[in-house]
TrEMBL record:
CDD domains: UGGPase. It comes from the Eukaryota. Belongs to the USP family. InterPro entries: Nucleotide-diphossugar_trans, UDP-sugar_pyrophosphorylase, UDPGP_fam. May function as the terminal enzyme of the myo-inositol oxidation (MIO) pathway. May also play a role in the salvage pathway for synthesis of nucleotide sugars. It comes from Urochloa decumbens. This is UDP-sugar pyrophosphorylase.
Length: 582
């Protein structure tokens, strides 16, 4: 097969039989693995690569013949009646859903050596992203069952796609924390394999520079999640259990679950086969825009178009201003945040046709403008959000837009890169990601009727951010806005220097006047009311230099830590009604 595909160079250096036979067998073991993990095998991979490399060399525009237009979707306003009813519809649907986390990446780009899902989502409680995700899914599971009534014991499946880099560390994180309260049988780990590297425009496979009996490999991208789900048999299993939705999300957006109930409600009420979560996007902002593309031959697709391609595409198709803001002050093409909700039935039918293969691209770095040689080997890549590219025109593909403050604060840039971001653009760092959680929680409580002090502006790791009161709660306290509104009564107020940690379901703020730090832990059967003033010296914020190696990496990449001077911590372990009033 390799010789048929003109890969003779792989064997040119092989010595005569009897020499290095074990290494030669090892080579074919690797070839067998590469062949079985790619839809259609290595022959398909090499042929796809030849075509894509030829297109790349010729400078072919993937959008030739397509005209962009604004797709249809829902724009939600946090806290209004429509939002509240969509949240309720989404919670009801959650027991028919499965969640899929793509977590194949290490935190190297962040300046953190571990896996990204192990990073603290925020450092007031220190809970990591994975714990927050699991607790959120468990809260949805419980709330969804409650709505349906007796006899509902549904467990929501949770799939994590890992890679060679993250697999062992992900399993260790789960096992050493008892799966953060989830039943181990609910969690499935699917590991993605790497793909062969390509040495030149003829798609000759690259040998490992350190081992001539090994093909060099690199990651294929998070689009692999579709073929892994297809080949795992999980989709058919979910279908037999009458599940209806598959939600895909990425590893470090600490605000994501604020958006999931209402977005799932949109999918259910609108009957979307594909629903992309999105945020308002400023024209030319460095985030892909969700766009409807119509080809001259009549094909249409609703797809993420990268920001550097959207502007020239619009200019080339009769929009002289290119990617411009409309009367709302934002681009009419909403910003894609790579969270997808797919309807399971149509998803399975589509994957039966494609076997999970996703439209690929290649991004070689050429040595010069002749484009005849590469600086280093390249490979084919694919992205999870390109799934809709192959759908028939009859597919119902839409989007759900939510405010950025509520739904999107990814942690992906290290301090040095974040400090270089032009003023006014998002930093997407550990600093901004944590501060965004406090901002969102403060604004949600404000909307629920509490008086939350305005933030102060401070600079950490050369990034200017708003510092709101450090408010955080467990998902079972505030899964939806309706839940929160029912628990915030009277005239409660929280000062800017305060921190509030709520761990428990039935904790009510009824005229709490907080000026300091308050930590509340309560079992679900305890009902706790807080009224009156709570005052103490609280926790102060200290600046940390990201170059200061005496601090842990997860603190250095934020640029701050808390000095825990004084706090009131109260624990309610007994069922019944309790109140704390000063």
């Amino acid at each position: 097969m390799l010789l048929n595909e003109r890969q003779m160079h792989l064997f040119e250096h092989w010595p005569e039989p009897g020499v290095d036979d074990d290494k030669k067998r090892g080579f074919f073991d690797q070839v067998r693995r590469l062949n079985s993990s790619y839809p259609g095998g290595l022959v398909s991979y090499i042929q796809n690569a030849k075509k894509l490399l030829a297109d790349s060399k010729a400078g072919k525009n993937p959008y030739d013949g397509f005209t962009p237009s604004v797709p249809s979707g829902e724009v939600l306003t946090f806290g209004n009646d429509n939002f509240v009813s969509l949240e309720a519809a989404g919670v009801k649907e959650a027991r028919n859903a499965a969640f899929v986390l793509v977590a194949g990446g290490l935190g190297e780009r962040l300046g953190y050596k571990g896996i990204k899902v192990a990073l603290p989502r925020e450092t007031t409680t220190g809970k990591c992203f994975l714990q927050h995700y699991i607790e959120s899914i468990l809260s949805l599971q419980e709330a969804s069952c409650k709505m349906v009534g007796d006899g509902c014991h549904t467990k929501i499946p949770f799939v994590i796609m890992t890679s060679d880099d993250t697999n062992a560390l992900t399993i260790k994180l789960l096992e050493s924390n008892s799966y953060f309260g989830m039943e181990p049988s609910q969690v499935k780990i699917l590991k993605q394999e790497k793909v062969a590297c390509l040495a030149d425009n003829d798609a000759r496979l690259a040998l490992d520079p350190n081992d001539k009996y090994k093909i060099q490999t690199k990651p294929h991208g998070h689009g692999d999640v579709h073929s892994l789900l297809y080949s795992s048999g999980l989709l058919e299993q979910w279908k037999s259990e009458e599940r209806k939705w598959v939600l895909f999300f990425q590893d470090t957006n600490g605000l994501l679950f604020n958006a999931i109930p209402s977005a799932l409600g949109v999918s259910a009420t609108k009957g979307y086969n594909v629903n992309s979560l999105a945020v308002p996007r400023k024209a030319k902002e460095a985030i892909g825009g969700i766009t409807k593309l119509t080809h001259v031959d009549g094909r249409t697709m609703v797809i993420n178009v990268e920001y550097n391609q959207l502007d020239p595409l619009l200019r080339a198709t009769g929009h002289p201003d290119g990617d411009a803001n409309c009367e709302t002050g934002y681009s009419p093409y909403p910003g894609n945040i790579n969270q997808l909700i797919l309807e399971l039935g149509p998803y399975i039918e589509e994957l039966k046709k494609t076997h999970g293969a996703i439209s690929e691209f290649v991004n070689p770095k050429y040595t010069d403008s002749t484009k005849t040689a590469f600086k280093s080997s390249t490979r084919l890549e694919c992205m999870m959000q390109d799934y809709p590219k192959t759908l028939p025109p009859s597919a119902k593909v839409g989007f759900t837009v939510m405010d950025t403050w509520l739904a999107y604060a990814p942690v992906k840039n290290n301090p040095e890169d974040a400090a270089k971001v032009p003023k006014g653009n998002p930093y997407h760092s550990a600093t901004s990601g944590e501060m965004a959680i406090y901002r969102a929680n403060s604004l949600i409580l404000r909307k629920a009727g509490a008086q939350i002090a305005d933030p102060v502006v401070d600079t950490f790791n050369e990034q200017e951010v708003e510092v709101w009161p450090r408010i955080t709660w467990s998902p079972r306290w505030g899964l939806t806005f309706k839940d929160i509104k029912e628990k915030v009564r009277g005239n409660s107020s929280i000062s800017q220097r305060s921190a509030l940690v709520i761990n428990g379901r039935n904790i009510f703020l009824e005229g709490l006047l907080l000026n300091g730090t308050l930590i509340v832990n309560a079992v679900d059967e305890a009902e706790v009311k807080f009224t009156g003033p709570v005052q103490n010296k609280g926790w102060t914020i200290q600046h940390v230099d990201y170059k200061d190696t005496s601090e842990k990496e997860e603190i250095r990449i934020r640029g701050f830590k808390f000095e825990k001077v004084e706090q009131l911590e109260v624990n309610y372990t007994e069922p019944g009604k309790h109140s704390l009033s000063a």
